[in-house]
Design goal:
The protein has no helices and eleven strands. By secondary structure, the protein is mainly β.
Amino acid sequence: RRALSSEKPKMNIFKKNGSIELSLGCSNARGIIGLEIKINGGQTSVYKYLAPYMERINLNFMKIREAEILPIEELSYQNRKWYFDGKPITHDASFIILMCIDSQNKYTLLSDLITFSRK
C-alpha cells in the first residue's frame, strides 16, 4: 500500500484554436494516474490510464469538444448511484480524476473533476 502525499494536483484548462489543453501541476511528479468514469444509461464504467508526468496535456487525442473543471468535493457515490452537489447524476456523463505519483512513489490526493463531452 502506498502512502498519500498531502498535495492536490493543480489544474487549468486552456482552449485555443479548437484545441483543449490541460495544465497539471504536481511537485516532484514522475507519473500520472487517470481514472475516466463514464455513466451511460445508468451503467458505470471506469477506465484507468497510466502515463509519464506532463505539465501540459493536449486533450484532442480523446476527441474532447468541451471540458471544464469542477470541485471533487461535490462528487459522491452512494447506494450504487453517483451524485454531484447532492443531486443524482441522471444523464449520461463522463469525467476524469487525476492523481500524480511523486518521486517517493506516493500518490497525491485526487484532483478536481474534468467533465467533458466528446465530438
